[in-house]
Amino acid sequence: xxxxxxxxxxxxxxxxxxxxxxxxxxxxxxxxxxxxxxxxxxxxxxxxxxxxxxxxxxxxxxxxxxxxxxxxxxxxxxxxxxxxxxxxxxxxxxxxxxxxxxxxxxxxxxxxxxxxxxxxxxxxxxxxxxxxxxxxxxxxxxxxxxxxxxxxxxxxxxxxxxxxxxxxxxxxxxxxxxxxxxxxxxxxxxxxxxxxxxxxxxxxxxxxxxxxxxxxxxxxxxxxxxxxxxxxxxxxxxxxxxxxxxxxxxxxxxxxxxxxxxxxxxxxxxxxxxxxxxxxxxxxxxxxxxxxxxxxxxxxxxxxxxxxxxxxxxxxxxxxxxxxxxxxxxxxxxxxxxxxxxxxxxxxxxxxxxxxxxxxxxxxxxxxxxxxxxxxxxxxxxxxxxxxxxxxxxxxxxxxxxxxxxxxxxxxxxxxxxxxxxxxxxxxxxxxxxxxxxxxxxxxxxxxxxxxxxxxxxxxxxxxxxxxxxxxxxxxxxxxxxxxxxxxxxxxxxxxxxxxxxxxxxxxxxxxxxxxxxxxxxxxxxxxxxxxxxxxxxxxxxxxxxxxxxxxxxxxxx
Length: 558
Description:
By secondary structure, the protein is α+β, with helices and mostly antiparallel strands. The protein is built from 20 helices and 13 strands. Helix 13 links the parallel strand 7 (about 350-355) and strand 8 (about 375).
């Protein structure tokens, strides 16, 4: 019997029909009349709304003169700008776009849509006065809710790039050099003019012109006003010349033409000096900004932002036009005192911690007069702690002092005797009394090349008695239990705050120009930072992170 193979049945898969969700672009939907229903109860915008609503309207009304077209409500404008900075919206055009598209901005603005020019004008002009009012209201909220206790304060500074052309910078040294060259040429022209003026003796006798004297005196006293006066006299002299003195008249005319060109250049450099006002440079596109060396090594127009933090909240900020931190502390602490006025805190008895960039006799004296604890490092504190300073034999700090004979002793056992007392005046006007000690003789010393810079003069050191007393007091505070805790916390406090704004919020360059406007912009950044931190703590989104950090800190303490 033959078996036949049966055909194998194959399953044919049938493709199912794809059914899309119904899409009708013109479909009508029901939107709640109240936009507030679309904003969650614990949203960050709720905190912004709560803070601004607490401000008395009378405190904002004073910044408006009245009349004309009705302005937008200042509370609405404050809300959208503060929340905009919380959401990394730093320009007026982007903010105007968000107010037309985002529900949260629509709720904060009451569905109003001011144009970008109106938003920009409010931030640049109105907020110059309002920003301090809002910042004080935020600080009051933080104190009332127990987020901050301004007992321990931390200060630091950071360089911030200005909204300026980095290639257009005017330097004070170049201005001084060019002005000196122009004055030299003017001096030569005045000398030629004097030689040609045969009638000058009739007006001045044997006396020379006041501006034509010794070269050093000329460079100090000669200015564009005096040169303009000479031009008037020269012009009168040319007109008075007789027709027969054609050659002399022509020569004086050429001098007048050159002198007119030079005085225009002199006025240009005098204008630059007025803008500089003692600074080393300024940007042509933002004259308030100066050239600073940024952290990445670039030389850019910028500002030195100083701020005070407590529990990583920003309690105070100032904008400075100098790269050095030390001269800025006095004005910064004065602003801090102003901010804390009216709050339920006592300014006296506060502790202020800062790095060695602020350690100076002037600052120690200022903090002592205000009754604040100065947990501020002096310049060589870290080297003292690590032992590096002791290795530097020729530092004046390592010269033993004998109070009986009032002398220092160098590594070669030679004495440095008291020579004189002199006074040093700081940039802020603080007068520091210094005592200078000089070596009896450095002749034949085998270590003279390492010990002193000058080959002719003997080694000398300058000591401030008051300054040394402040350093000793600061050393005791910094090495106390409280001082060690504050030193450990300082980096977390101020550096963490700057890091949040620069890296988390991606703000490294200002949008506005001019010191006053930059002050407003950083104020918005500081307010935004504080409110975002309140939101994180109240919402509990960082609860696990805070718990891990506290656990780690407790283990270290144990």
